[in-house]
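Researcher: Let's try something more involved. This one mixes different molecule types, so please make sure each is placed in the same coordinate frame as the others.
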Amino acid sequence: MNALILIVEDEEDILELMEFNLGREGFETIGFLNTKRVHEVLSEENVDLILMDRNLPGTEGSEYIASLRRQGINIPVIFISAKDKDEDIEQGFERGGDDYLTKPFSMKELILRVKAILRRTKKSPNEGNSTYRDITLNLASRTLMIENSLIELTKLEFDLLYALISNQNIVLDREYLLEHVWGSDEVYQDRTVNVAINRLKEKIDPDKSKEYIKTVRGVGYTLC
Amino acid sequence: MNALILIVEDEEDILELMEFNLGREGFETIGFLNTKRVHEVLSEENVDLILMDRNLPGTEGSEYIASLRRQGINIPVIFISAKDKDEDIEQGFERGGDDYLTKPFSMKELILRVKAILRRTKKSPNEGNSTYRDITLNLASRTLMIENSLIELTKLEFDLLYALISNQNIVLDREYLLEHVWGSDEVYQDRTVNVAINRLKEKIDPDKSKEYIKTVRGVGYTLC
DNA sequence: AAGTATCGTCACAATTTGATTACAATAGTT
DNA sequence: AACTATTGTAATCAAATTGTGACGATACTT
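Model: All components are placed in one shared frame. Result:
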């Protein structure tokens, strides 16, 4: 999954150049000429890094970032600005910037700094995250994302999906599931699993178009 | 708990200047004129950040860092070097640097960059101030501000909110909370947490309009 | 194609869980 | 010591979750 970088830069040609170069490195980019629709996107998309110009029409970039920080939005930010005085740089960092690049800047250096930040902040693959196709399970927050939309699961449903997702390509029989998901002390019927699987399917694929969970007749269920 | 910064710089007067300025900002520092004893210290002390010169007697700083990285040591590194060519900077980042400052540099900027990196990588929340949405916890004065108005919390309530706020997006189960907020010596019931959470909710959101704390049925509570 | 075993689905009941309130116990203050 | 604030526990209520049985649908076998 490629990192998503949001760019705010009011000079259209510079913006294009940045998007082109970052895109060539395999990053996804969303560019804006001002901050108007940024907040909207931040709440909808999973942005990994923000590149922010400071001299923007209307808003001042670093003030905008400061307001994001006050809202508890801690996405990493690199300021890219012609403001190169010591006080300017100080202000940029104090308002929550992670790095500060002064114009004119080299594309190469920008890319290096982008990578350095993402290397630290982007959740390294499968650290607390389990994925299968377009499903992402986050263990810590106990949340399920399917195609960037959040789906609420009950505890049982979550544990069940986690068992399946961490045993991809392995058919889990009902006995195994009852023991590992439900817990071994109580005694349940095999049908209990059927119904639970069903309720899970209904939540993660209401249209029945994805077929995430495959039934293996006579044995159990699997994600494959 | 102050951050510990390890510095390798072969020019003695620059090293002293750096230690003096960083010390004045409240950082602990350990300075070296070469890399000889660095590894030893890294294994004994809990170093939060390394400031590394490149032109050192004997070793080349960035090569030394590269070897640390190969050993799985991922302490953040800021290179501080007179090598300012594009290729030099590229090499610095590729060998595992998090930032690159070219000599001559301003102490102010160094401190800002140090803080920016520690803000992200150090586990402890930044400077005793934790925020979430419009909530601000001040650890030093143990006070809580919500939308510019002061709210009084009891010790338990404060500690509980602090646990939640410093683990945003992570569901904390009752066992964890009892151990970390209440303390592990005594034995309490799980319900105790419910009641405490309730009292906290009542104080921080009497109208029940904000929904700061989310209940995760069957698991625990989270701020998200 | 018919028969059988297995599974999906639905409705309902049982259970679990959390919120809330009241009250008792404890600690800290005057 | 009396008072107050704080906190743990128990009881009650409401709600979400989950287990079960019934039955139709589906897949597999012959």
